[in-house]
Amino acid sequence: MNVRIWGTRGSLPTPGSATERYGGNTSCVEVNSEGGTLIVLDGGTGVHGLGRHLLARGKGAVHGHLLVGHTHWDHIQGLPFFAPFYVPGNRWTLYGPRAAARPLRETLARQMDGQSFPIPLERLAAELHCRDIEEGDHRVGDVEVTAQSLNHSSPALGYRLRADGRTVVYACDHEPSPDWTPGCPPEALPPADRRHAEFLAGADLVIHDAQYTAAELGGKRGWGHSSTDYVVELCRLAGVRRLALTHHDPQRRDDDLDGIVAALNETLSRQGEELEVFGAAEGQVLDLPI
Ligand SMILES: [Zn+2]
Ligand SMILES: [Zn+2]
User: What's the half-sphere exposure (Cβ side, CA atoms, 13 Å) at 163?
Assistant: First the structure.
């Protein structure tokens, strides 16, 4: 599998000089299997650049699968601007959580209802299929996908992808369970957090919501997001090889993120841990270690 990051920002697009290295576009990740399956994780504003990239390749019709974790705006706002949807002959299957308040197709149609966007969903030239899915295993091309619920204010799914002998997990947005406390020993991990750690277990790469620092999470319980220390701790317990922190807070500047990542890696290396942590950056291509 080959992974490319197109959008890393949480909540709100944040262009500008303070975010130009990690990126200002909201959530979007491209995954390609060696067998030719194209999977897009989330359709935040980053999907605009991906769409242009796919058409510029000039390889003919584009068929792909788009897995939406949940339908908060920062995960679907780019979809009306996804150029492959406007090309006849293209075929896309879109997936979203069945537990959402309304079917995925209806949610996507609402953000293109004339009030918010001029072209309605049904006028798109590509063939679009929407599927509302539940927790469990799903076959997407030659990729095995396991969906698992996340702890968020809206029904949300994380996706565990397996293909080519590699495993990638994408989990945005997710908050520690109310019972979790910073620094809690592994044996005292609340069941919901243990279940989440098992979802991440042994992954070559985890791309995870880490909107807050440990200090920030205290005042933002109930907002639906993880803190960096929580994600690192779970990935360490789960034997993950590489962790890409993403869904960066709109107020997080590039320099702040550099400092956060450096401090986390310093602690991990002092502890003799092999987990590698980095901040997901727009345009980044991620190799999966053998
Ligand atoms: Zn979000
Ligand atoms: Zn959300």
Answer: 22
